[in-house]
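hey can u run this one w/ nicotinamide-adenine-dinucleotide bound, need the C-alpha cells asap thx
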Amino acid sequence: MATGRVDLDGNPIKPMTICMIGAGGFIGSHLCEKLLTETPHKVLAVDVYNDKIKHLLEPSTAEWADRIQFHRLNIKNDSRLEGLIRMADLTINLAAICTPADYNTRPLDTIYSNFIDALPVVKYCSENNKRLIHFSTCEVYGKTIGCFLPKDSPLRQDPEYYVLKEDTSPCIFGPIDKQRWSYACAKQLIERLVYAEGAENGLEFTIVRPFNWIGPRMDFIPGIDGPSEGVPRVLACFSNNLLRGEPLKLVDGGESQRTFVYIKDAIEAVLLMIENPARANGHIFNVGNPDNEVTVRQLAEMMTKVYSKVSGEPSLDSPTIDVSSKEFYGEGYDDSDKRIPDMTIINRQLGWNPKTSLWDLLESTLTYQHRTYAEAVKKATSQAAAN
Ligand code: NAD
Ligand code: UDP
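ok here u go:
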C-alpha cells in the first residue's frame, strides 16, 4: 500500500511494523509519538515501564489505537522477544542503563544491560534477516585526543584534535578502575558485534550515536517521579535544583563541555533512518548539534536565566555551588572532556541538520518542567517541612 509519503530518493514508503525495545523511555516516547502522529507505521512497543507513553496507549479510541501495542517485558529473560522481532520489519533497540551515576556504582548491571542483554536482539535480527537500528552513544569516543596535549599547546584549538568523526576518531577510555567507562566499553563492544554481524552474516544495521539529546520527559525528578536519592542526567539534576530553589551543583568545576540537541530535531534524524534504509544501512551516525556547545557551568547559568523567565521566580544570588565528583558520583567517576559531533556522514547520507538553538530548546523544556512538576515539588516540600 502506498501512503503518499516518499523517501529521499522519491520512492513511495510502504507502512512497516517496528519492534521498538525501550519504547517507554525518553527517546522511545518521542519516537512513538512521531511515528503515530506523522506516519502510517505500526509500533510493537516493548519496555518494563509505560508511564511516558500512557498518553499514546489511552484512550482506546485514539486514531492510532490499532497501530500501537504495548508489550511489558524484560528482554533479559523473556521468550516472547524473538516472536516480536519476527513479526516486525525493523527492530529499534533503545533499552539500556544509561545514567552516568550508575556506571561506576552499578558497573555489572551497566555492562550486562548494554552488552549481554543486547546480544539476543542482535542475534534474532541476524538469524531472521530483520533490519536493526541499534542505539549506541557518543560516549564510545571517550576523551578527545586534544585533552592529552600540554595545556598551552596551540593544537588544542585545532578541530583535528577534538571533533569526533565516526570513521576516523579513536575510542579513548580511562583505566579499568575508573568504572565510569564500563558503559562506553560495553556500548563499543556491542557496536563491534553489530558491525561484524553485518560484515560476516549480512545483517542490515544502522548504529546511532546520540550526543546529549534533551527535552521533555527526560529521566525523572528525584522524590517526585523517581527515587529521592536517584541521580539523573544533567538536565533533570539542574531542573530539580531550579524547581526546589536550590543552587545547581557543578561537578569538578563544571568545566566539561557538551553539545546539546533538542529531542524533536534528533527524532527527525531517526525517522529519516527508518524510512531510508538504502541510505542508512551499514552506517554509524553521530546525531547532535555542533553549534550548541557550552561548558556545564555555562549550561547552569543559562538554565537559571531561562527558568527565571518561564517561572516568573527570581534566581538565587549564588545560583551554583561546586562539588567534587567523588562526593557527587562516588569512587570511579571520570568524565568526557568535550563532545563535538562531525556531521559529514549524516549530512551526506540523510541531508539532516539540527535546527533548534540551546536557548530555545531550554525555554520549551523548562516550560514543560515547570508546568509538570512545580506544584508537586511545592507540595512535597511543604509536607516535608510539616513532618
Ligand atoms: P531511557 O532510560 O529513558 O530509556 C531506556 C528504556 O529502556 C527505559 O524505558 C527502560 O525501562 C528500558 N529498558 C532498559 N532495560 C530494559 C530491559 N531489560 N527490558 C525492557 N526494557 C528495558 O534512556 P534514553 O535517553 O531514552 O536512551 C535510549 C538509548 O539511547 C539508550 O541505549 C542510551 O544508551 C542511548 N543514548 C541516549 C542519549 C541521550 O542523550 N538521551 C545519549 C547517548 C546514548
Ligand atoms: N553534571 C553536573 N552537575 C549535575 C549533573 C551532572 O555538573 O548535577 C555534569 C557531569 O559531571 C558531566 C555533565 O554534567 O560533566 C553531563 O552529565 P550527564 O549526566 O548529562 O551525562 P554525560 O553527558 O556525561 O553522559
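The longest helix spans residues 358-386. anyway lmk if its weird
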